[in-house]
Design a protein that fits this description.
It is built from six helices and no strands. The chain is mainly α. The chain has one domain. The longest helix is centred in the N-terminal third of the chain and has 31 residues.
């Protein structure tokens, strides 16, 4: 019984470490895009800031609340995030399928923010 409890505690510690690492990665993504990093931990506001990063209006948040439509616009938003950092479709697929790996690559890697949806700012 005690062994099972220690395994459960160890699992919770690992889980929390992964969550903290992913939050730090998102924080870094936001700061690379010249947005407040703390915005990534505030529900709803984090999506509004992410929409600002990818160059879409705030009302896209409403589209992300519609069942079915949210999947389409969510994938589109992730693709625009990849383009905003100069990455291609392959990186978008990585973000969608292996986000636990690709979010830290985007945050802590050498990717530079090139502007909303990859359009360089003048």
């Amino acid at each position: 019984m005690e062994n099972a409890q220690s395994v459960g505690t160890f699992g919770i510690i690992i889980f929390l470490a992964i969550i903290i690492f992913l939050i730090a990665s998102q924080w870094k993504i936001y700061t690379k895009a010249k947005q407040p990093g703390w915005a990534c931990i505030i529900p709803i506001y984090n999506v509004i800031v992410l929409l600002r990063i990818v160059g879409k209006p705030w009302w896209w948040l409403l589209l992300l609340l519609v069942p079915g439509l949210n999947v389409i616009f969510g994938i589109w938003m992730v693709n625009l995030l990849s383009k905003s950092f100069g990455k291609g479709v392959g990186f978008t697929i990585g973000l969608l399928l292996l986000s636990i790996i690709f979010i830290p690559i985007l945050g802590f890697g050498d990717a530079k923010y090139v502007g909303p949806a990859g359009i360089e700012k003048p």
